[in-house]
Design brief:
2 copies of one chain form a homodimer. Helix content of chain A is about 70%, strand content about 0%. Chain A is mostly helical and about 110 residues long. Chain A is elongated and about 55 Å long. The first copy, chain A, contains 4 helices and no strands. At the A-B interface, α1 and α2 of A face α2 and α3 of B.
Chain lengths: ~110, ~110
């Protein structure tokens, strides 16, 4: 895919890292809120193992999702936008070409 | 080991199961308290992954420890007594031979 081999200017790299870190901070903050909510209603050991299963799945998902990797970054950004952790406004300093590709990817 | 092949009377089986369940209830209740304590101080994602690591280790430990298995039960009971989850008084209906073996095992 063309998007995977696109070059990134210094400015774009900075914008990309900031956007990536912003999305990570938002999503992990939401996860902390969710875990606090679940923790407050734990009353039996099965509830605890359910929380453990939930954390195992979310950790695995986040580890894969937030691997900062330029060849995959347009796809990553499209996913983060679709999931609501990032806005197009966070990426307006990227080239029009990249933004068009991200926009197209969000519609897949 | 002789203790592993000892037979268990119906009464001893009942006592063993009750003691086992009591220890499990006590230890898991203490774990729930510990998790509530840790959860209340989570403020960053690394704290959450530390909690996840802690739960993974404790779950693995408890799964192995609370496998009700007659050939291993004297060793299991000795470990539970050493760790404070069971008292000798919970096992007084067992034969003197079994109690002597459990007592010896607690001193290993």
């Amino acid at each position: 895919m063309q998007a995977n081999t696109t070059e990134w200017s210094d400015t774009e790299q900075l914008v990309a890292k900031e956007a990536f870190e912003k999305a990570y901070a938002l999503e992990t903050s939401a996860l902390l809120d969710e875990v606090r909510r679940q923790s407050s209603s734990i009353s039996a050991i099965d509830d605890l193992w359910n929380l453990h299963d939930f954390l195992s799945a979310r950790r695995h998902e986040l580890d894969g999702k937030y691997d900062f990797n330029y060849p995959m970054l347009l796809i990553t950004f499209a996913g983060l936008i679709k999931d609501g952790w990032l806005q197009f406004d966070d990426l307006t300093s990227l080239s029009k070409d990249k933004l068009a590709k991200i926009s197209a990817l969000t519609r897949l």
